[in-house]
Specification:
Blueprint lengths: L1 E7 L7 H7 L6 E6 L8 H9 L5 E4 L9 H13 L3 E4 L4 E2 L3 H34 L14 H9 L5 H8 L3 H14 L3
Parallel strand pairs: 1-2, 1-3, 3-4
Antiparallel strand pairs: 4-5
Helix pairs in contact: 3-4, 6-7
Length: 188
């Protein structure tokens, strides 16, 4: 059986590019995740790992979709190997049913982790310079007038948080922070 695992980092991102790339493999079941890849504690990833059986093949668009750290990648590969489940990465053209595929997936996982660490380091350095020069003020504060009205609509089950977030043009975590701030300042 062919399984596809697709991951994007946020609700706002679209998984269509990955899905389209993987459809060529006659996928029987898709597991789609909208979550950060910072660790392997992701519901759809865990569901897929539980669901996969001996002889199944898991297809991913690229290695960074399934794991960001070499340690996580190696642990996932061990889990899949123990279950006799193959992993195929489209972008890197890797198949873990071969010894070469296992070696290459480990090397590329290490390179991906290195690239991510370098990107974050450059970002921190750039922010530090901008702050020193007075050019960086941080993320702009989001203020929504009448947040209490939106909160009441949500509490009265007139609208879901996802719908409200889309309506207001903010992310779900931002809406949660706005509601938390409102509840902290709202009269009892």
């Amino acid at each position: 059986m062919n399984i596809a695992y697709i991951r994007v980092s946020t609700e706002e991102q679209n998984e269509a590019r990955q899905r389209e790339a993987l459809e060529q493999h006659n996928i029987d079941k898709f597991f789609i995740e909208k979550a950060s890849g910072k660790n392997t504690k992701r519901p759809e990833l865990q569901k897929m790992l539980d669901w996969a059986r001996e002889g199944y093949t898991i297809f991913i668009h690229d290695l960074s979709r399934i794991a960001r750290s070499t340690k996580d990648l190696l642990e996932l590969l061990d889990t899949l190997d123990a279950k006799k489940v193959a992993l195929v990465s489209d972008k890197e053209n890797i198949d873990t049913t071969t010894a070469t595929g296992k070696l290459i997936v480990t090397v590329i996982g290490a390179i991906n982790e290195f690239e991510r660490a370098n990107l974050l380091e450059r970002q921190r350095e750039g922010i530090a310079i901008a702050k020193r020069e007075g050019k960086y003020k941080g993320r702009k504060n989001i203020a929504i007038t009448d947040i209490g009205e939106y909160y009441e609509r949500y509490m009265n089950r007139e609208v879901s948080k996802a719908e409200l977030a889309r309506e207001l043009g903010v992310s779900r975590p931002t809406l949660d922070r706005l509601f938390l701030k409102y509840r902290g300042s709202a009269p009892a």
